[in-house]
Specification:
The chain is of the alpha/beta class. The protein contains ten helices and 14 strands. The strands form three sheets. It has a five-stranded parallel beta sheet, sandwiched between helices. Strands 12-11-10-13-14 form a five-stranded antiparallel beta sheet. The longest helix is centred in the first third of the chain and has 20 residues. The chain is globular, with a radius of gyration of 20 Å. The termini are close together.
């Protein structure tokens, strides 16, 4: 059986329009990594690809990978509809932003195909940072207090502390700012009332930025890697430059698995590749984000230093 692998920014969904270069490069790296890993396990794959991009760097004679080239929005819609009818298993890499991942999940499941990812409720909660904070707080999982931008403007005191302003459904560090109270008020004053509804404010927590790469299934939590996130700030904007994987010395794997297990118990719809962003301060761990999908750390070459990380998915794929 052929597995359909979809990566949003490279798929042709944006054909005929603007492709954000950084997000496209990140998506391409994740797609290339998972495709190579699945081919190594002898799976047959099909992808959709924007014709403005080069072919994936697989062997040109490898017939196990089929590429469907997309030239414009119309050809994307036609091809996507045909793929929903033709293929039975779907692995999707897409951002939560603007409900993109959620809408794709709905389409695949409405077509009664196998969705190899988190369920729609988990995607919804993870894709709303305010809703996710409420859930984690209710279950005593340490996470920064989160407010809507509107609520923060009404309630914030004049202090010298720093704050993080970011989209309520943002992926990665897109449009994420670190500002003091005065700067935060000035920044939010430039937003329209509509824009304010789509941003949250959290206290900035200094410490070691980490992430967990996981595969979650009915059998439990498989820890693929503990990662160091290398962050920079430029003109008050926070950027994730790259990840360093297999950094078990920064966090005991038993602690990482225990935390991931608690989060899974709190949000049982998490399934498949999942990422959890953390801040470590001393002996405390703060959960910053839960990403209900494959994350950029998967693309790091060291991720497959000791084993093929796609083995975690292998058991759920039908081969004929």
């Amino acid at each position: 059986m052929t597995l359909f692998v979809y990566e949003h920014f490279t798929s042709g969904a944006l054909a005929g329009g603007f492709c954000p270069p950084e997000l496209t490069a990140e998506g391409d790296a994740m797609l290339s990594a998972i495709v190579q890993d699945l081919l190594a396990l002898n799976h047959k794959l099909v992808i959709m690809r924007d014709q403005r991009l080069p072919a994936l760097t697989t062997s040109p004679t490898d017939t196990r990978l089929q590429t469907l080239w997309i030239k414009d929005k119309e050809s994307f819609e036609t091809c996507w509809t045909r793929c929903l009818q033709q293929y039975d298993q779907f692995l999707v890499i897409a951002p939560e932003t603007d409900h993109i991942l959620l809408n794709i999940a709905r389409q695949v499941q409405q077509a009664q195909k196998q969705w190899l990812g988190c369920d729609q409720l988990a995607i919804t909660v993870c894709g709303d940072k305010l809703q996710c904070w409420h859930l984690l707080e209710q279950h005593d999982i340490q996470t920064p207090v989160t407010q809507s931008a509107e609520a923060w403007l009404l309630n914030s005191a004049t202090t010298s502390r720093q704050w993080v302003i970011k989209p309520i459904d943002g992926a990665g560090c897109e449009d994420t700012y670190v500002l003091d109270t005065r700067q935060s008020r000035e920044k939010l004053a430039t937003f329209s009332l509509t824009e304010l509804q789509y941003f949250i404010v959290q206290p900035y927590i200094g410490g070691q930025a980490l992430s967990l790469s996981l595969f979650i299934s009915d059998n439990g939590v498989d820890l693929l890697s503990i990662n160091a996130q290398i962050m920079t700030q430029h003109q008050q904007q926070l950027k994730l430059t790259h990840c360093q994987v297999n950094h078990d010395h920064l966090l005991a794997p038993t602690v990482a698995i225990a935390l991931a297990g608690r989060i899974h118990d709190t949000m049982p719809g998490l399934w498949g590749f999942v990422g959890i962003d953390l801040i470590k301060t001393g002996d405390q761990l703060w959960v910053i984000d839960i990403n209900p999908r494959l994350t950029s750390s998967y693309a790091e070459a060291e991720m497959r230093q000791y084993h093929n990380p796609a083995l975690a998915l292998h058991a759920y794929l039908t081969q004929q």
